[in-house]
């Protein structure tokens, strides 16, 4: 059954005239769900890594650990479960966009997404796309984009699928997940609830302390529905809701001093209407998104700081295809009105209209390219044209070359501009020019992709205590004159089945040299070397996996002083699953996972030890 | 470091041996590697731990992160201040609610006080008791206190409730004087605590009182920085003199609108104060502020000391090592520059 699905998807990808076969559709753990068709289509020349359901289920503890062990991103996490941000290729967290079903969900207050405030397991597929070419999702994603997708698919016959996953782990960690899918030829429903809770009071290795203020609890509820109105038109509705409460870990030498607490709530709603004709297709989107956080400096008090935002978004895109040229042209028009406030900033409203054009063509199945142009009309800023070009050349059966380049802009966030006493109204948008060249080889079992990149960023916005001579010592955002990032990303995957043994290997390695042109030193919190690998082995009812992360040394001072660094670390996780029940439509698996198997002391942020060795027992029932 | 220690140990042993031989002329024993020098404390930041740097009195050697090197662990952020008694140094780190006690000459760890403190800032020692100013919960303006530490057991064994944001603390004639800069907010009082019964009186001064000294006339001199314009309630800055027997203001020198000095030193009858990165000096009896600066900092002037005709200025950097610049006060020439602690803020002569 599974093989049939893989084969049929493979055929769809290969024989669908205009849909480009993306450079790097890998991670064939089970079925790679082509969740975001447009993402695939408009990623010619870019690297996209798809994290399938089974990969996601392996790292359900947090979005942070999922990305840390399975993608080329660098995650900064303030203690396990704390504030967490992700960056690509030495760019900043606000240069990483998170896209939920085609909508950018970065906070308008700080321009980022907290990676411990997203429920991992509720999404059907997560794609990680490196490079700045995602112009249709905004121009600020210099580093890359992370796509969270719900997969709604009609089926000829009525199908009902249930999945129940429960786990129990060290530090009083309990997780539960229930997903339900219904589909027939007219209707597709996807829904899920998840609940996670942990005392998270792990021992700080080599000390007498425990992570006494690290508990967390969160609840997620996602629901999406697609209804086929006519043969060519569909109506879809997506809703993702999250409620979370976390305590923030303390720092050595006295973690007992921490007693702060953080709550966040988000509600995301999206209505999509699509009309697809042979040549012309339309899509209209309406979204309403709200986000709120409350930060309690003292958990025992009821006073808190807060930030709130709401966004209204209308998006219309129309695509016209030229089958004879294997080409298509797409127009994206988007109007957004965002309201943001914090207890420090009175409500501001930013409006933006953007227009993008994308031209996509496949010449003789040998060369394909994707050209994008975008113009934003922003109520706060003049944002010039941005553009991107991606090309893929496939001269031989298994070999491909890819190249892309883009110009990106990132406008300052509300906090950057308006934070009292610190915000800087003189900030100008960041500009980045970048290019990437990659070479790859792909056959049924093996895939390698090697890419070199170069990013030149001007007027990069950074917060620094020395930024304003009139306010010395006060952290203010400033434009840094010039930053150059260059490096290499290598991705590798290998799948092989012999007899009844299945071996899978995935690896990501990135080498990043990011320098402030004024000093020629490596930027702080950018590791030069980052490597992760996943090895999986399945035999009959048994499967085993091993994950390894090697995170290089990170400088924390601009002079790259060796007195102030976060040392490199090696962390490994492993797990064993056994299928108790293995029927065509009923599978029951029990599994044991050991995180940090070698019980290594490591810090991702200074003075904040990460968890020691810990166990997790899980049951996964699909029926 | 290790060789240094070995040598000093060998020296101590031989000195003891020699001492036992001749009773009259016992040589001065070195008390540790960090005697006879300058200690600089750095607050630290997200970029690195709070730390202490050592510079020898002859200014030839500089050693950073001395606590970490001796004890292999870190002090944490933000290191506010150090207080000394005979042979101990008390290192106050506010974000970690800790006071770390070390031998002031060897920097070997003796104890870390981690309970009973909440955002500790400064400490004063009187009769083997330590008095530590604490902001308490930053979300509560009514829970600020002075923690009383028993310096034999290193345990907090009492508290004195005070107004919002207690900062500097000094002892004079059996009384503690506490300036209330106001923590994350702002305040305009000096608390006077009578140590005989721990009763508290307050004196109203200008907003953001910070550094306090007792001058040669026995008056309390207070630098009030005033509220900055971004607070939305800008107030004037002043240097206030207070009669310590009547607790009343006897004189005040006021700064112009918009001027907010943040550092002051009293040395040998002279007041040195900072304004906009420049240092001015006036006689402690002066009736007007100075209009000509004596030295100007090249960076963010965050700490200042005067000793033996030299002025020590800290140009702080919170993302990297800071700079110590030493000037000759008579010639105003720079003597030397040293790269020291991250977020350097205080200078102590050991």
UniProtKB/TrEMBL annotation, chain A:
Keywords: Cell outer membrane, Membrane, Receptor, Signal, TonB box, Transmembrane, Transmembrane beta strand, Transport. Residues 58-145 form the TonB-dependent receptor plug domain. The keyword Membrane applies. It is found in: Cell outer membrane. Residues 181-597 form the TonB-dependent receptor-like beta-barrel domain. Pfam families: Plug (PF07715), TonB_dep_Rec_b-barrel (PF00593). It is a multi-pass membrane protein. SUPFAM superfamilies: Porins (SSF56935). Belongs to the TonB-dependent receptor family. This is TonB-dependent receptor.
From TrEMBL, chain B:
Keywords: Signal. Gene3D superfamilies: YVTN repeat-like/Quinoprotein amine dehydrogenase. It comes from the Bacteria. PROSITE patterns: PROKAR_LIPOPROTEIN. Residues 1-21 form the signal peptide. InterPro entries: DUF5074 (IPR031815), Haem_d1_sf (IPR011048), Host-pathogen_enzymatic-act (IPR051200), WD40/YVTN_repeat-like_dom_sf (IPR015943). Pfam families: DUF5074. PANTHER family: DIHYDRO-HEME D1 DEHYDROGENASE, PROTEIN NIRF. This is Cell surface protein. It comes from Flavivirga spongiicola.
